[in-house]
Amino acid sequence: MVITSKDNARIKEVRKLQKKKTRDKERQFLIEGEHLIDVAIENNADIKEVFILENKTFDLNIDSLKVTIVNDVVMKSISTLVTPPGILAIVGESECIENSQRVLIIDSVQDPGNLGTLIRTADAFNFKQIVMSHDTVDAYNEKVLRSAQGSHFHVSLIRTDLNEFLDGFEGVVLTTSLEGSTDFTIDESNNVALILGNEGRGVSTELIERSDKLFKIDMTGHAESLNVAVAGGILMHQFRI
């Protein structure tokens, strides 16, 4: 059966997941496109349901999944994209990884593209746990998901009070500061938590004071500063395992 009305009760429920409030309540989010859904399947993500545009076919292993066929009007109503790719899935949030030797702590980053890039870069350099402040942009925002390119399914994402997290963290805490050192030497056997801050004000003074080591990236050109995602990439590469 093909769902043809965007006023269908199930479709109304799906549309609610476009809002952060509903995503937080249900602990579910939407992903779109063959690539993201393929990555989700490969990583045994908790895929609740897949919606496919009628007469479209995809080379995906979805035989064991609940699949709902919809028409063009319905697909456009549940998609967040101007040109929907014709396939969309509801996914449940994954359980948190309790222990990771490398942790990325994100303090009030606001731009979805920056957060998505940081998640993707953390995945690349084995920062498998990402801890975000409550005022950081939603990690399941559609722009964050597209920017991260599937890395959500490789890392653990936690939104919590950063001071409370640091209270229980056993390892060395690093962050950036204009007064920091350009010598990035650390004991690599230690657990490492790297704090990155807001695009405008940087890392909060309170979190800087809780850090064990402060670093700055030596720049030889004329730019006054680096984008937080670029700086994060340099530092995560430096402290990778």
TrEMBL record:
GO CC, alphabetical: cytoplasm
Residue stretches making up the RNA 2-O ribose methyltransferase substrate binding domain: 30-97
One Gene Ontology molecular-function label: RNA binding
Keyword Chloroplast: no
Entries under InterPro entries matching the protein: Alpha/beta_knot_MTases, MRM3-like_sub_bind, Ribosomal_eL30-like_sf, rRNA_Methyltransferase, SpoU_MeTrfase, SpoU_subst-bd, tRNA_m1G_MTases_N
Keywords recorded for this protein, A-Z: Methyltransferase, Transferase
Biological processes, Gene Ontology terms: methylation; RNA processing
A Pfam family assignment: SpoU_methylase
Family: Belongs to the class IV-like SAM-binding methyltransferase superfamily. RNA methyltransferase TrmH family.
Protein name per the record: TrmH family tRNA/rRNA methyltransferase
Organism: Phocicoccus pinnipedialis
